[in-house]
Write a structure and sequence with these properties.
By secondary structure, the protein is of the alpha/beta class. The chain has eight helices and ten strands. The protein has one domain: Rossmann fold. Helix content is about 35%, strand content about 20%. The relative contact order is 0.14. The structure holds NADP nicotinamide-adenine-dinucleotide phosphate (NAP).
């Protein structure tokens, strides 16, 4: 797969490191940082538009405030992974349209999949993210064909894909992240809240 990492921060670095069997490109607003991360990952540094044109899959590793980066890029038919959480990892959601829906509107024809937003970057740096001997499950919301593609990338991280419905359900993942972040900040063990069986 050809994967473009949009952003040069923690999420692009952590997830990109798991995807080394694929061809990677890095795009960022700071060319120096993009080149440095590309070198680290054995990738090429490309401008946004060239990377979008080249890629099969784009990881949007940018803050919500930077969604407009995708506007006008050739992303139709590409899988666009939305790992974003609300600004500043807020513990509440801003009113209005879910981010994943806004991203889909900004990139018409792109196959947006909400994924990787429920765990902190430290978890994505684990090789693999195992907890009590069990691989982390990664919920995915998007069109089934695109979810299949991202499921492969979830397995590359050493995690278990958890298809969780269409993009209309991405709002639930965004709300879950905001809720969990509030609990973490308050010092609670969120994993203990989601056990079953
Ligand atoms: N960190 C986590 O634990 C975590 C977990 C799950 C999901 N997420 C989500 O993943 C996304 C990326 O998070 P991160 O931790 O990787 O963030 P980060 O380390 O702060 O990196 C953010 C990247 O976005 C770039 N950027 C910021 N504003 C921009 C703009 N206006 N236009 C273009 N590029 C811009 C930054 O460029 P510069 O270096 O030039 O500033 C940097 O490359 C966020 O939406 C976050 O909510 C984060």
């Amino acid at each position: 797969m050809r994967i473009a990492l949009f952003g040069t921060g923690g999420m692009a670095q952590a997830l990109g490191a798991h995807w080394s069997r694929h061809s990677l490109a890095v795009s960022g607003r700071d060319p120096g940082r993009a080149t440095a991360l590309a070198r680290e990952l054995g990738a090429s540094a490309l401008p946004w538009a060239s990377a979008a044109e080249w890629a099969d899959v784009v990881l949007l590793g940018l803050p919500v405030s930077a969604l407009s980066v995708v506007t006008g890029l050739p992303l139709a038919g590409k899988v666009l992974i939305d790992c974003t959480n609300t600004p500043g990892d807020s513990d509440s959601l801003p009113p209005g349209t879910p981010v994943a829906t806004r991203l889909a509107a900004a990139a018409p024809g792109a196959l947006v999949v909400k994924a990787f937003n429920l765990a902190p970057v430290e978890t994505w740096r684990m090789t693999p993210p195992l907890f009590e001997g069990r691989p982390l499950a990664v919920p995915l919301c998007g069109a089934p064909a695109a979810v299949d593609v991202v499921s492969e990338l979830v397995r590359d991280v050493g995690c278990t894909p958890l298809p969780a419905g269409g993009l209309d359900r991405a709002a639930l993942l965004e709300a879950t992240a905001a809720f969990a972040i509030g609990l973490w900040r308050a010092g609670f063990d969120t994993r203990a809240a989601f056990v079953s069986g």
